[in-house]
Amino acid sequence: MPRKKHLLKNKYCKNSNLTELQFEMILHTYIWGHSATEAQRIIELVSHKISRPTIETYFLKIGERLFKECSPLVMQMLIDSQPGHHWSYKDYKELEDYYVGEYWKLINENLDYRSYREGGVILPSPVIHELLLSRKKLFRGFPIKTFKAHLGYALYLLLMIDPDTDLSECDQSASRESQIYEAGIKRVMIRLEEEPL
Length: 197
Description:
With 197 residues, the protein is mainly α. It has helices at 20-31, 36-46, 52-81, 92-108, 113-118, 126-138, 147-160, 176-194.
């Protein structure tokens, strides 16, 4: 007798006990910059209880996916920002390791972005620095093993705040910031449908 086809409970992530609604709520709270504890309180108001460690796990998975998606674009921005500079990097992986390491050093040692950049270090944007500082404060610091997930969040927000963002499908009564976040969340959900976590 043939096996029944297994239906996915959640089209956004494989092997998950979360419903699509619960995952969407985790994604919304992540994009809006809430901590896992705040997200847990918000989600409990409208859904079943989800543990804080589970929310943290999904926050890190989402951040790592955003890093993977945004990193090539940021590396291209870095290369384009230095037209006279001849890159000695053999491939993108070395360039990625370079800017991740430099941002880690900048954030971890509480260095000033402007003076750090004047010292010859090439970093794409002060906005990323500010977003990482706010996340560091919100999360009371973060270890290097989760740094790429936090950097993914900052990179995604930098790329999401694009003046050409199509906001036609968003709630027109909402603020521009809310419309941009809503459009960004929809883009992430579409990408996760194509390639689940």
